[in-house]
Target: NADP-dependent oxidoreductase domain-containing protein
Amino acid sequence: MSLSNPHSSIPPNISSTPTVLLNTGAQLPLLGLGTFQLRGPEDTLQAVDAALSAGYRCFDTASVYRNEADLGRALRHLLPKYNLSREDIFIISKLGPKDQGIKAREGALRSLELLDLEYIDLYLIHWPGTQGLGVGDLRNPKNRALSWAALEKLYTQGRLRAIGVSNYTSGHMKELLEGCSVKPAVLQVEFHPCLAQEELRRLCGENGVCFQAYSSLGTGALLQDPLVLQLAQACGRSPAQVLLRWAVQQGIPVLPKSSHQSRVSENAQVFDFELSTEDMERLGEMDCGQKYCWDPSQVV
Ligand SMILES: NC(=O)c1ccc[n+]([C@@H]2O[C@H](COP(=O)([O-])OP(=O)(O)OC[C@H]3O[C@@H](n4cnc5c(N)ncnc54)[C@H](OP(=O)(O)O)[C@@H]3O)[C@@H](O)[C@H]2O)c1
Model:
């Protein structure tokens, strides 16, 4: 993985937004808009408009978010306003746990159809388990393998430009790395100062897999943390900017979600300041294994 221009002070646009080089050769923007819980054509249009205006060029959706059609429509409508084309945008979507296994191809094709796209830039297996199966059910690993094989085929056919996984533990990752023909390009997991994910980061680094963060703000909970508030005040930035900067300063792509225009813009202003080594370390010391989202550790 190589990092291009992570400390740029130029306002973000497609040529200046810092990116991470994926093992496919594609550039993944360090900043993307999260869209979980963004629902309905109007709200989606407003958030995407605010994001494009603030310089976001990456959007993260998923089958389970039920907003793929709204996101696709919003982008088609708004790209001309910003003089952008499809190639300027990086779209991430994910295979729903209900489609894990033999239905994976169908699930991925449905995402393409709902987004109304010829290709998706990055498609992830959302969760190591299968909806309807217990966490200890031995059909889980079989279904993961079937899903990956389906994604590999769609990757080879060019409909998915990169493929990866989300919420995989190091055990799930090792199983995948041993059995795959196409290496995953990305692992997307929960990551913030209270959840440093050192083992997964090391594994990704050793295998050329890009480690991508979700819930960098701790789903909002870390915005009230006393140390985050103290550092934000000291550097004249917002708590959200401190948390996002902590990740991007380590070269880790983030996907903050907000449905407020001012916050979408605020969350993009993270490439024009630096946290000191000491502040980075103090935030790193918050690691306590705290998860605010789902926990995949019990899925066999
Ligand atoms: N792969 C997975 O399993 C997975 C799981 C979770 C998330 N994700 C992805 O990652 C994205 C982000 O994660 P997340 O939505 O869980 O949490 P997050 O980005 O850590 O936090 C979002 C929350 O923080 C608030 N917020 C955002 N910016 C703010 C700001 N500048 N000031 C104050 N509050 C702010 C938002 O409220 P408002 O909207 O009201 O502003 C929202 O409640 C998701 O949308 C999704 O795309 C992926």
